[in-house]
Amino acid sequence: MGISIWQLLIVLGIVILLFGTKKLRNIGTDLGGAIRGFKKSMNDDDDGQKDKTDSLEKGEESKAYSASAEKSDEKTHS
């Protein structure tokens, strides 16, 4: 008792008659561009998080290196 293929084709035909193929093509292009932009911004956000994490890890490594270098300098000067 669901929607049959014939009912879907009739609805599709009515939509094409109402809007026209050019208008439907423009809507599809706009929708595709919006989805593409959304995915790109999500990927850019993920890359930004990775860069921030990497820079924090590098900062901690450089602090640890400078602290160990200061300790070794103190030992050599003593």
Automatic annotation (TrEMBL):
Record Gene3D superfamilies: 1.20.5.3310
Alphabetically ordered keywords of this record: Cell membrane, Membrane, Protein transport, Translocation, Transmembrane, Transmembrane helix, Transport
Subcellular location field: Cell membrane
Superkingdom of origin organism: Bacteria
Topological category with respect to the lipid bilayer: Single-pass membrane protein
Transmembrane segment boundaries: 6-21
InterPro entries in the record: TatA/B/E, TatA/E
Compositionally biased region (Basic and acidic residues): 49-63
GO cellular component: TAT protein transport complex
Record GO biological process: protein transport by the Tat complex
GO molecular function: protein transmembrane transporter activity
Record region (Disordered): 35-78
Function: Part of the twin-arginine translocation (Tat) system that transports large folded proteins containing a characteristic twin-arginine motif in their signal peptide across membranes. TatA could form the protein-conducting channel of the Tat system.
Subunit-level organization: The Tat system comprises two distinct complexes: a TatABC complex, containing multiple copies of TatA, TatB and TatC subunits, and a separate TatA complex, containing only TatA subunits. Substrates initially bind to the TatABC complex, which probably triggers association of the separate TatA complex to form the active translocon.
Family statement drawn from the similarity comment of this UniProt entry: Belongs to the TatA/E family.
Name of this protein: Sec-independent protein translocase protein TatA
Upper lineage: Bacteria, Pseudomonadati, Pseudomonadota, Gammaproteobacteria, Pseudomonadales
